[in-house]
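Q: Please design a sequence for this.
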């Protein structure tokens, strides 16, 4: 089918946005962009540069260093998806830790960071045929997207999923740590002054608390098929 659309997926942390986006992109032959990975990469850069820790956040130093941050995705055929690179270094594993999760929402609050990344994201999607997930894709990055999805689930459900994922990777974390991180990120994401997380009026809400990945995929694929027809 020649017609291509833009699919914007927003939602709370650990709702499986990336999993769904990857499934759709693979099935449709579309480009997939994980904007969360981009913000995580900037947070990781800030951590490594000493700009942010549990006691302080030097926003000005980060803003002044944005020109030194070069991000790109590189497809890994063995994994079947593109990995995040920061200044030509593969940091896919490093940005998925609980430490980065603890800082990413604070870094994403910075207007200059959002402006830099939104510009890159819009350039990536100018030819359509793209699936992008994040917090402000439907509202800011692609306000004219043909399909907008807003994903949600209870904080307990999302924390349990994230906890199990981190355990499988061998990370030493407690469930309470993960739950606290999920709840804190929810608050920051929905209360920040610049591009807060909210459900776009044209977005279709999907609560996947009790949906399997397959059920969720089929539900959204039906929406895509309807639009393409």
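A: Design:
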């Amino acid at each position: 089918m020649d017609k291509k659309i833009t699919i914007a997926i927003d939602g709370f942390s650990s709702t499986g946005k990336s999993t769904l986006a990857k499934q759709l992109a693979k099935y449709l032959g579309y480009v997939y962009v994980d904007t969360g990975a981009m913000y995580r990469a900037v947070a990781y850069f800030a951590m490594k540069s000493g700009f942010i820790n549990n006691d302080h956040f030097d926003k000005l130093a980060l803003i002044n260093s944005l020109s030194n941050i070069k991000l790109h995705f590189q497809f890994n055929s063995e994994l079947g998806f593109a990995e995040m690179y920061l200044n030509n270094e593969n940091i896919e594993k490093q940005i998925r830790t609980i430490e980065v999760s603890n800082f990413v929402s604070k870094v994403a609050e910075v207007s200059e960071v959002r402006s830099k990344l939104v510009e890159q994201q819009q350039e990536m999607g100018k030819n359509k045929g793209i699936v992008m997930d994040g917090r402000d894709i439907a509202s800011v990055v692609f306000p004219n997207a043909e399909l907008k999805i807003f994903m949600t689930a209870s904080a307990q459900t999302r924390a349990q999923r994230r906890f199990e994922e981190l355990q499988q990777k061998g990370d030493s974390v407690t469930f309470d740590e993960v739950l606290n991180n999920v709840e804190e990120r929810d608050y920051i994401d929905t209360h920040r002054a610049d591009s807060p997380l909210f459900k776009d009026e044209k977005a279709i809400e999907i609560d996947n608390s009790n949906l399997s990945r397959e059920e969720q995929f089929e539900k959204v694929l039906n929406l895509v098929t309807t639009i393409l027809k």
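Q: Thanks. Anything notable?
A: The chain has a mean pLDDT of 93. The two ends are 9 Å apart (CA to CA).
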